[in-house]
Amino acid sequence: MKTMKEYLNQLQAAFAEEDIEEFNELKEDLLEQLAICLEEGQTEAEVVAGLAPPEEIAADYYADLSLDAAINAKTSVVPREEIQDVFIQTQKKRIQKFMETVFKVLKPLFLLLLLALLAFFLTYTIKELIEEQNLAGIPTIFCLLLIAIILQVIKGWQSEKRSWINGLSIGFLAFGMGLLLFCSMTNRLMYTGRQYYKEISLTSSNHAAFSFDSDADVEITTVEVSSTEKPSLMVKGRFKESDIKKIETGSYDNKVNLTLDEESIFDTFTRTGRSEVIFFIPKGTILDDFHLGLSRGDLRLLDIQTKNFDLDLLSGDVYAKNIIADDGNVSSEYGDVIIEESAMNLKVKSVSGKTVITGMLGDLTINGDKGLSILKFLRSDNVVLNNHSGRMILEDSETKKLTATATDGQVIVKRTKGDLLMSNESGKIVSEENQGTLDLKNGSGQTIAVQESKVNAQVSSQSGFIKWLQDPSQSVKITASTGTGELRNDFSDVANNGKYKVNVKSKTGDVKILEKVE
């Protein structure tokens, strides 16, 4: 049927004479629909082709009519089972029509998704084949399986070639499953690179520099060698072919600059495993730069002299000892960092790992999130501790100036000499047996000071609790006040000698000045 007239004639023939009025209503609706579609640019033939068969429309009408008659009948002339059967069949037809409509809409979108996935895996396969001389097992298998699925999707649009498409689809599916079995048996599903060893030697010890970055798991060690040898780097492990080319050309101008195993979406199915890197540094050599940027690894760094010391580690542990540098930067997300007996102006950024620094000479800045920082035996002009929700402990150190802040964590300073400024929002600050000038500022958290010796101190609080414990044998004049909180001062009657004085003031928090008891 190509015209609406032919369609309506067949539809009228399917209706009984007594139902001609209902047919006429349906006819008006169809003609109105035709007019709208013609205005939108469709042809009459296209509109008629999109309509359901006349017999099906008539059957649906009489099924609904029978159901209404059965439900509204005053006497039960139709068995209940037949009513239910008519209702179920009607609902099934409606659901079937709905699903057919949904499938017609989603089918092109599903096909586009399959084509996009095919393009990705095909690009992956070609890229690895060119750059790594390796046939990517999993991406290639996915390509074959996707082609088989795509052929089945488009089969409905090629009714004359369905058998040929089915055969082709089965062929791609069988090839893909065979390749999957072969790669599984030969352990080639993942690309693992090849075993490789290389030692790179620099030309001299003057202006030598090392820079190494990797997103793979790496074990790094430094070894001090004789001053007569040249700086060198040894790389060992499984590497991609593209990375081996980088290693072969990674040295220039007396510098090693390597970036290996860079993570990208085209390395999803690559597993090269842990590699090993050893730096051989002649005794007395001062490097221009020593940089390591790693996603995962374990580092053991000993006896390094460099102008710039830079570590950027996502996860893994660092142990460094006897590092001498002008400037140092250490960033660690989740690993532990231990630095011993070193000299440099150091900045440390830690998220959740543990940082331990002992016996260091030079300025120190630590920004911690929720990890633990332990600092001992520092000799510094300036120490800055910024703690969010973790814990920082500074002990047995000397500094001209200490600035420590605690947002929601803890900062503890013990037996340290210098001008100490410690501020707290809602966390906790503890000052114990320090020497110098104390300036303790408290928001809503706790401030605790324990003193055996005499000091000059200013302690202030908004609403937090303040507790000061003073050795009675080293009595000092302590002035304390609070707005609305509880106040106790065991040293209020001590005479002012003019040299040492402690002033404690809170707006609304409790203040307790107590004698220290052994």
Automatic annotation (TrEMBL):
Residues 216-367 form the DUF4097 domain. The keyword Protein biosynthesis does not apply. Residues 13-40 form a coiled coil. It comes from the Bacteria. Pfam families: DUF4097. Keywords: Coiled coil, Membrane, Transmembrane, Transmembrane helix. The chain crosses the membrane at residues 102-124, 136-157, 164-182. InterPro entries: Toastrack_DUF4097. This is DUF4097 domain-containing protein.
